[in-house]
Task: structure prediction
Amino acid sequence: MHLRSTALAAVAALSFSLGLTGTGTAADGPGAASPGDVVSSAPTSFHPLPGQPTDTRAWHITYRSTTAKGTPNVVSGTVIVPQDGRTGPRPLVSYAVGTVGMADECAPSAGFPDGTTAEANLIQQLTLRGWAVAVTDYEGLGTPGDHTYAVGRSEGHAVLDAARAALRLPGTGLAANSPVGIMGYSQGGQASSWAAELHDSYAPELNLKGTATGGVPADLIRTAEHNDGNIGAGLVLMAAVGQNAAYPELRLDKYLNDRGRHYVEFLKHHCVTVNTVAGLFKRISDVTVRNPLDAPDWQRVLHASDLGSHAPDRPVYLYHGVIDELIPYAIGQKLRADWCGKGVPVQWHGLPLGEHVLGAITESVPAANWLASRFAGTPAVGNC
Result:
């Protein structure tokens, strides 16, 4: 394994605000709260790099959402609106970031004011087009509890509810029927793909025009097996911690040895680059007394995050690197086949020289161009 791939994996795992003050809710009556309602908002700022101006207005928000088990929760995030003099509704992109880590300080909203959020430069490409952007922190990242990392349904809810919250937040200039796009890569690809599959049942009122999603870990068990003892090994245990956070009955602790328990505590308190380097080439057997992937309850829960069993009700731009070192290309190909088989207009792009992180960077502009066509009302053409 050459150094460049190792460095890319650490970065790839990367891939893997004046306004209201105080707090408020969109519906204050007893029992009236619903997913997407804004719980609190406060002005923040959006900087792709330290001190870099962006001519945007941004809010840090907390909003109501739903866990993987269907119970109410509260998630944090950021809403960013260009200050470009535009009047009237503008498009909104609900943007799902790739892996940032498990500690609260790793949350996208924590890094935006300081210019340290890894994908902020990609997000700025969207605001420069005049689009508003809602960025979820996901469940348990920036809010109490452990981050439910790699739990697809929880992530999909958070992405859709971030869009709802942005549309309901006063002062943004957005309207309830503003056109919405979804975008994400790596963990964000999982989250955005889940949002695409959940849209028709969970948030059908959103005026969704399409989803641009890439590097998608559509099969967690295959992804874990590929990374066991590989450069993405740290992400495997992070995913186990995330599943255990969503489904505590899995009892991850009973599978861990002393080294594993120590490592889990380490992961919970650090961000992705440190966690990736710390986990390089570890095997599941190094940190467990028995492999949870062999347990029926773990298999059931992990398969619950599989994608491809339900057709998104809007067009999809799907891309994956042929030499992706973290998420095998075959997993992306299967997701394409599953969605195409259900009649989804999928615009598929296999990236011949695409390692994991390069896929996020090289396809950011084509994916945004595809969304721009959807916002313009151009019919989507698939290549199934």
